[in-house]
User: Fold these one by one.
Assistant:
Number 1:
Amino acid sequence: MEYFVQQLVNGLTLGSIYGLIAIGYTMVYGIIGMINFAHGDIFMIGSFIALIVFLFLVSIFASINVVLFLLIMMIVAMLLTSLWNWTIEKVAYRPLRGSFRLAPLITAIGMSIALSNFVQVTQGPRNKPIPPMISTVYNVFGISISAKQIVIVVVTAVLLTIFWYLVNKTSLGRAQRACEQDRKMAALLGIDVDRTISITFIMGASLAAVAGTLYLMYYGVVVFSDGFVPGVKAFTAAVLGGIGSIPGAVLGGLLIGFIEGMWSAYFSIDYKDVAAFSILAIVLIFLPSGILGRPEVEKV
Amino acid sequence: MTAISQDRPANTSLVQRGIREALYAGAISFGMFFLLIGIKTDQNIRNELILVPRWGLLAVVIALVMAGRFLMVVWLHPYLEARKLQKAKAPVVAHAEKSAFVRHWTKIAIGALILYPVVIVLLVGFQGSLKWVDNFGIQILIYVMLAWGLNIVVGLAGLLDLGYVAFYAVGAYCYALLGTEFGWSFWILLPAAGAMAAFWGVILGFPVLRLRGDYLAIVTLAFGEIIRLVLINWREVTNGTAGVSGIPKVTFFGLFDFDVSSPYYIAKVFDIAQSGAYYKIFLYYLALALALLTAFVTIRLRRLPVGRAWEALREDEIACRSLGINTTNTKLTAFAIGAMFGGFAGAFFAARQGFVSPESFIFLESAIILAIVVLGGMGSLTGIAIAALVMIGGTEILRELHFLKAVFGEGFTPELYRMLLFGSAMVIVMIWKPRGFVGSREPTAFLHERKAVSSSFTKEGHG
């Protein structure tokens, strides 16, 4: 039983990171109907920015002040990653808005290849390890919970609350939801659709940047190709939860985290990704639009 | 940015606007690049990461971005606007007589492809031809073959498949494992690899029948990853990441072969000088034959009921079903036949490399093949071949640009920038031609006379 709860905690940690990335996928999909393949690489860029900020801070301050460091890393990563995603949206996706469906998908894949290779060229192909930031481990009823895991879960919960408030209670969120339902009608009612879409990309990138910072802190290492696997997992999470649905993205992220944790604990660690992908396929056979997704009704 | 600049009063001159936009772009690129280009993370002797500033490089990159933006505003945009106006003014020529080159261009292209190795051998000799026939000829033909195979699924049936490389892997491992274990010939295993891949195509097809759009995309992607992960982890059979080596070479229908130690080695049979180029040239023609077979089958299938059903499915699934077309069978055949050609290409790839490992079947390959299909114009065989030539040939040629070393210094390796440029080229080509190189379609069913349909009227399907 303790072993099970232990795995539950590990799954929750991993799932929080996936959930944060998945929100970026699901929001962009909801608003412009495009799979933003470059989102995983945006997460990786966020992680690299956090890495550079961390090294910079270490070289200035003598001792590591965890809370201050994490806060600065997150804020800088959020700002710069948002700038990246905002620019990418303007340069690569906006000219293709209203074009046929596969065109933005291909530019997104091209962007993803370009971004990861850009980081490879500028920062080198090696792994980038950092010294552990937090190493405290608490022991609660026989379950060991590290302080890192607590930080990840708490940060995710706080961010999701802010995010939930933004989407559901502010005029900005109302504009976003309106654009999601009917972009043309929203434009007729005076909503600046382009601006709303830009803000959606910025919000997605900020959450991905936080996920990148947490990922760097949790694993202590980052490499230029790190965008792909978490990106695909998060995308899987978004689809599993029902793409376009924000609670679905979080739920899907947690589910994928649990599946991975449980599978590697009880079966084989080699096949944990196979398990996650297979469960996605099985769920979609029975629920073709994900767990919380609205079934798409095509009007003739 | 363009939207803002259009609202400006007309009296600000173009150059002024260009300078303003350039400053704007410079500020943005400074924000994006000052950490990622301006500072490099390096490892010191104690394996700790240290920061190395590179402000010079940062300044150069930002200056380039600003210059590029300035030229775009001052020169490129007015030029494109003027050309658009000119095009709109020009009278529409009703029935321009096509030149002989356009009418016979398929034959000319095939003729050129057949003569290509001969010309290369005459120009640079047998030894020098290796690189050109292998890296350019065979490499591009493999991608043409794969893209034409995927075109059946994506271009004709309109089903978005992000895991096509799985079938390529199935074909390659089918030949690699059966060829090395049992010593069976390529000519027996080629159809076997195709059949095996088609079988897996149906296996994938079943669960995704009800899925549409992006749900389909993610499940096909997941399928591709599952196949790759199984190849990595099922070490008893596939030898894991180490891969399978010593895959037998293709023989010339058993008459003679290309293995130096064999008594039927081509040089011994014909009593000529030994050279590795014979095998490469033979493989080139084999790849060409397989690619032409794919094209031929695709062209003929489009005229069969099943091909018409695919295209109907792409245009409108509901209408298709109301007309009594069995969409289940239609989708499954599309997956199976597309996968079969992927399997052929895989078997050929294994024979050419003599070695396969899961490294060759990553998602990036699927993405490249899909990009070629879309850049080529989805459904147009000619367009896809052009796209493969431009994208694959273009990145291969980067390896050959040794003169760049003279410009950027001895340490400059163009290969490093290969994928960066490939990704950027995908973005630029897509923005420049969102419908691909050849966007128009030639319908197979028509009234009185065949007319090319403009790309803006064709659909890309929901599946």
Number 2:
Amino acid sequence: MENYINSYVIVTIFLVLGIAFPILVLSLGRILRPHKPTTAKETTYESGNDPVGDSQIRFNVRYYLYALMFVVFDVETVFLYPWAVAYKQLGLFALMEMVIFAGLLLIGLIYAWKKKVLQWNSI
Amino acid sequence: MQHFWDQPLSWGTAAIFAAGAVGVLAFVLFFVTYAIYFERKVIGWMQYRKGPNRTGPLGLLQSVADVAKLLLKEDTIPKKADKGLFVLAPVLAFVPSFAVLAMIPYSMNLQFADLNVGFLYYIALSGITTIAIVVGGWASNNKYALLGGMRSAAQMISYEVPLVISVVGCVMLSGSLNLREIVESQAGYFWQWNFIPQIIGFAVFLVAAVSELNRTPFDLPEAESELVAGYHVEYSGFRFAFFMLTEYVYVYAIAALTTLLFLGGWNAPAPQLDFIPGILWFFVKFAFIVFSLFWIRATFPRLRVDQLMGLAWKVLLPLAILNIFLTAIGIELMR
């Protein structure tokens, strides 16, 4: 039990230190670095040209398709890990269940493949 | 560290844990400084150059000088940028990369947090860095940065899937997600380390890991020739340094994880060599992995973006799933 609580404490300490370090260094930098803004410095970089139009445009839909595929397979891994940890105790029956489960997902992958979701055509 | 785990929590033990965390931070900063130095040196040697050799003896102070320079550089934030998110992104990228290091065991008696979820903790946290990269690219309000950020996100989520699934084989063999137990299950001669029984998983893990790190040959997000620098074009000074630092902290984490999951962690190649302390074996293997990353960078040209996505979904993912079933059949046959 102590081990359990202490592990959480250590993770929290790492997290707090991870947040504190950049804040500390960046505020230290504020004292050290010069600060002389001009309009030329504050323009958006576009290979030396004056920036044209807005950059915060809508993304290509392809990114969303990849995100959907990612969600599908990431949820699969959430099921895979507990199964893998307990596999040695579960035996052949669990293997068959996983074959069916992964098979269903593979059909999805093949479907996406045939629908050319995995085809990257521009940009 | 181990015997403090079982003591009831007090301010004393918490202070010791905090001192340990500061020690890890200092060690990682040292590692990053000299990893960058050696990367430049090694690539220099492989290209018949000398690499950095002017600042300090043998150029040893080059990275230190670079960090000092970055600290003293003016920090410009573009007028059109979303200021809050722009400032947040480098911090958001760094925090998970450092928090990941809490669970890495260096030897039998040197581990900080003893987490039963082990590898899943790494996966859960490293995903947050992807968000930071998208936020950085979006907040910059720059076309190169946005493209780089989106590509980065697409690449990192695509390669996360085979990376996660390739480790399932190791977990099945040891019956635990706890990294210390995974290492213990690999004790014995070097052919009992996971990289031989899990050779497919190992190959998939290595390729996916290099891609997760956004390193050559998978460094499309920051393809200099087309996107200038990718998601961090607009960043300067120490905010840029934090993106760089994050990248190298992940190199550290991935090298440590490869060592622990596939190369037997702190186990000696043969039980006769056990008199050499385990932590030394750990760092020898760790250094070899880090060197291999530099070697890969100096050897391979960059992939095209369609080849990159095709590799993740059409090759690595089916291979990783195949590996799970081969491992399961192997376990059934050994029973």
